[in-house]
Amino acid sequence: MQKEIFTISGMTCSACSRRVDKAVSALDGVDEVAVNLLKNSMTVKLDERNVSVSDIIAAVEHSGYGAALAKPARGKAVSAADKQDPAVLELAEMKRRLVISLLFTIPLFYLAMGDMIGLPLPAFMQGTQNGLVFSFTQFLLVVPVIYVNFKFFRVGLKTLLHGAPNMDSLIALGSGAAAVFGIYAIYKMAFALGHGDLATVSHFSANLYFDSAAMILTLITLGKFFEARAKGRTSDAIAKLMDLAPKTATVLRNGVEEVVPLEDVATGDILVVKAGASVPVDGVVTEGKGFLDESAITGESLPLAKKEGDSVTGATVNTSGHFLMRATRVGEDTTLAQIVRLVDEATSSKAPIAGLADKISGIFVPVVIVIAIIATLIWMLLGYDFEFALSIGIAVLVISCPCALGLATPTAIMVGTGRGAANGILLKSAAAIETAGKVDTVVLDKTGTVTEGKPVVTDILALEKDGQNSLLAIIASLEKLSEHPLGTAIVKEAEKRGLAFLETKDFTQIPGQGIGGTIDGKRYGVGNAAMLKAAGVTNALVQQADDLSAAGKTALYCLRGQELIGLMAVADVIKPSSRQAIEELESMGLDVIMLTGDNAATAEAIRKQAGISRVVAEVLPQDKEREIRLLQEKGKRVAMIGDGINDAPALARADVGIAIGAGTDIAIESADIVLMHSDLLDGVSAIQLSRAVMRNIKQNLFWAFFYNTVGIPVAAGVFYSAFGLTLSPMIAAAAMSFSSVSVVTNALRLRFFTPVHAGFSETETTEDNDQAVHVSSQHNNTKGSSEMKKTILNVEGMSCGHCSASVEKALGAVSGVKSVNVDLGAKTATVEADEAVAGASLEKAVTDAGYQVVGIQ
Q1: Is beta strand 282-293 parallel, antiparallel or unpaired with respect to 317-329?
Q2: Angle at Cα 612 formed by Cα 609 and Cα 616, nearest 5°?
Q3: β-pair partners for 559
Q4: Is the pLDDT higher at 79 or at 568?
Q5: What number is the average pLDDT over the span 392-413?
Q6: Residue 643 annotated among the catalytic residues of the structure
Q7: What is the DSSP string of 364-398?
């Protein structure tokens, strides 16, 4: 199976898109068809052994529309200029047609209506004797309007002859009937003048309907113009994403910097990224460092430090610093290109709710034509003149155009997916949006979703006066020689504090117990309680170790010979935003369940910290899938949020799978929604956005149905006998145009969607004492209120753990500061403080401590 994208011309309403869909779907070898009315495009999944591109184009053309292959060449850099935007082309064409239409319709309207409202007319057009001049002048004015809008007639009559009338058919029949009647009136007047019948001339000169024909076409074109302008706005977010990629890149070749077009960058090229420049493509930093603003891709508002070996994403901005990078993914393989492609496919897909509108529009147009004919005949049979009956028929045809019905769903889907992309939320299909808005149960993976996904040192308990840094240096020196993940966390903590590693000899690993080695002639051991038991050492810290285990932490003891000198705890801590996200999910009326392969004790500890009501522990990937299936069998609609790798079976089984993380290929393939930023709050935002889109679609469908339900009876003259209420064809055209514009305008309100996340406070459950010193305030899961702000200071002069501790202490002493996290490696201090705390106060505190602030973010 291969996927091809086509540009479709001639579509104007949902009946058109349904006709194209039906024609292509009927071909052998076509597996899936998605027609996008807004973008005038069609995506087809086909078996090239049974059907060709030319077969598909022929099928579209036979159904009355045009088609051309529109798939961009692979490997070319993504840019808004790479393809002509159909919305922009449509807007330009509609503007041209509208200007010409108004140029001739305004004087035509003046001639037709001026005498009725007391406006002066040229003398040669006044009086019954000049009726033919008066009428023929109107005919000459209506011809250019019909000509410039002849597309309505060409497409409308063609689809009518194919047995699949659409909106254009209604417009062509309505305006065409008015124009033909006007021509008939001219002949009648000419005949009457030849026979001296001035009464007939007077009658027909007042009932020409040329003005109605022109006004119908002009008002429909005006509505189409506003609609086209609104359509262009629906894809603004996507266009902005496409334009994020720079047009050029600086490549380092043979030691010389060379500026080349972005499409000339190849995998493996060494690129130069200076301060203020955008990262051209995805890659890895090979030299230097910088701070990248990734807000456009991940939604992360704070710049992230990047150093040698770190991955960087194309279209992010280097706010400060200078580095070299090696290109690893270029062209359509970049993260930005994947985002644009996913959003594009989502806007081309159809929500299940759209099926209702499609089915109705498929039978709506022919039914309306029948209603118009019947209404015309009934009024004639009731004794009314042909002109009145004809105006009734024309009004029914025009007011019934199902534009609003066809626009109700796709406009909301397009705006919603674009808004999601701007917030780092990739909604892969319209069906995913609809399903996410209906879920009542959210299942969470633990590792990497609720928690950080990597262990960190949380507690150091030293029994000797040398303190925690001395104990950490010993344990880290031993763990540096091991390959255990917990050891890696301890080594990183020591490096973060700037501690020197001690020379270790005679390193040994004892299975099931721990590791050992000789430092400064003394034998040390690091391990679990089994190591203490094997060494015959009494565990004086058993209570502390039990408390740590109950909190979901892994306790590691340190021995010097036969003496216990301390205890260290390592854990995968919950993310700072996880508890808030879970509280918000529950406040939205959703049941939250956590599934994890971890042991019951650790799972229970994380459950308490995160505030989750139910947890299922010690489950394998296939067991997660089974748990979700059981929930579905109970009638639950389930969303699964996981990392998209080991949770693939569960993500596939869930009604909607949400992959949280950096948008890896596996996550993108296995999930329905991809969160580019590793924040559980984005999962809340995705559900909020889905609900907002579905509300908008339902509002649009309601008003579209309501408009037609009320408009058709009024236009048909149902209330004329009782109340004298009817609609002229011109008013009907204006009402139809207004309905379409109102639906698109309502969808555009989604452009202002902003996730709502209420602040919350949490009571700190961990108690400090004289012996247990918590390493970093970043692991205290306290979240401030919505009035808190985060500030990052770039600090020069820090060279060791004592320096970072001094900076942390100085900033912590500033009034209003709630937490401080100093990163010695990145030379940064992250401060959470009240809104009232000024950057100058923080800078002064650091300066007074003997260090220099070189930047505040």
Answers
A1: antiparallel
A2: 105
A3: 525, 564
A4: 568
A5: 74
A6: no
A7: HHHHHHHHHHHHHHHHHHTT--HHHHHHHHHHHHH
Q: Please give the Cα distance from 687 to 682 (Å, whole number).
A: 9
Residue 691, amino acid = R
526 has a pLDDT exceeding 90: yes
CA distances from 815 to 49, 436, 822, 834 (A): 73, 43, 18, 9
Q: What is the DSSP letter of 450?
A: I
pLDDT at 467 over 70: yes
Single-letter amino acid, residue 156: G
Burial degree of 833 (CB within 10 A; 0-12, 13-18, 19+): buried
Round to whole Å and give the CA distance between 680 and 673.
13
**What pLDDT sits at residue 328?**
93
Name the residue among 585, 582, 607 with its Cα closest to residue 596: 607
What are 442's strand-pairing partners?
A: 592, 639
Pick left, alpha or beta for residue 520 (phi over 0 → left; psi -120 to 50 → alpha; otherwise beta): left
DSSP state of 536: T
Q: What is the dihedral of CA 389, 391, 394, 395, to 10 degrees?
A: -110
What are the structure tokens assigned to 326, written together?
A: 């090696």
Average pLDDT over residues 738-757: 83
Q: Which of 282, 445, 459, 572 is catalytic?
A: 445
Q: Are strands 514-519 and 817-823 parallel, antiparallel or unpaired?
A: unpaired
595 three-class SS: strand
Mean predicted confidence (pLDDT) in 355-368: 68
**Whose structure tokens read 């989502």?**
346
Beta bridge partners of 461: 567, 772
In one-letter notation, the amino acid at residue 267 is T
Query: ∠427-753-748 over CA atoms, to 5°?
Result: 90
Read off the tokens for 450. 């609720």
0.85 surpassed by pTM: no
Per-residue HEC secondary structure of 202-215 comes to HHHHCCCCHHHHHH
Contact 757/580 with Cβ under 8 angstroms? yes
Q: Judge contact between 274 and 303, C-beta under 8 A.
A: no
SS (H, E, C) 485-505: HHHHHHHHHHHHCCCCCCCCE
Angle at 839 between CA 837 and CA 843, to 5 degrees: 120
Name the band, by pLDDT with cuts 50, 70 and 90, for residue 453. Answer: confident
Q: How far apart are CA 839 and CA 792, in angstroms?
A: 10
Nearest-angstrom CA–CA distance, 51 and 9: 21
Among 549, 548, 551, 530, CA closest to 539: 530
Give the angle 608-611-613 at the CA atoms, nearest 5°. Answer: 90
Rounded to 10 degrees, the C-alpha dihedral 837/841/847/853 comes to 60
Determine the straight-line distance between the first and last CA of the chain, rounded to whole angstroms.
49
Tokens found for residue 172: 């062509």
Average pLDDT score over residue span 127-152: 89
Percent of the chain with pLDDT over 90: 17
State phi, psi for 667 to the nearest 5 degrees: -65, -45
Q: Distance between CA 11 and CA 37 in Å, rounded? A: 7
Strand order in the sheet with 852-856: 817-823, 828-834, 788-796, 852-856
Give the rounded distance of the alpha carbon of 621 from its chain centre.
28
Q: How far apart are CA 109 and CA 126, in angstroms?
A: 16
Place of tokens 């509208």: 98
CA 752 to chain centre: 13
- Overall size of the chain counted in residues: 857
Tokens of 285: 């930093």
User: What residues pair up with 67 in beta bridges, in sequence order?
Assistant: 8
Task: Please provide residue 358's backbone torsions phi and psi, each rounded to the nearest 5 degrees.
Answer: -65, -45
Q: Please answer whether residues 853 and 795 qualify as being in contact, where contact means their C-beta atoms are separated by less than 8 angstroms.
A: yes
pLDDT digits (tens, 9 = 90+) for 800-823: 666 777 788 788 888 778 788 887
pLDDT tens readout for residues 480-523 = 888 677 888 899 889 888 889 999 999 998 877 889 999 999 99
Q: At a CB cut-off of 8 Å and minimum separation 6, what does 267 contact?
A: 327, 328, 329, 330
Order of strands, sheet of 425-427, starting from the edge strand that comes earlier in the sequence = 425-427, 673-675, 656-660, 638-642, 441-445, 591-595, 614-616
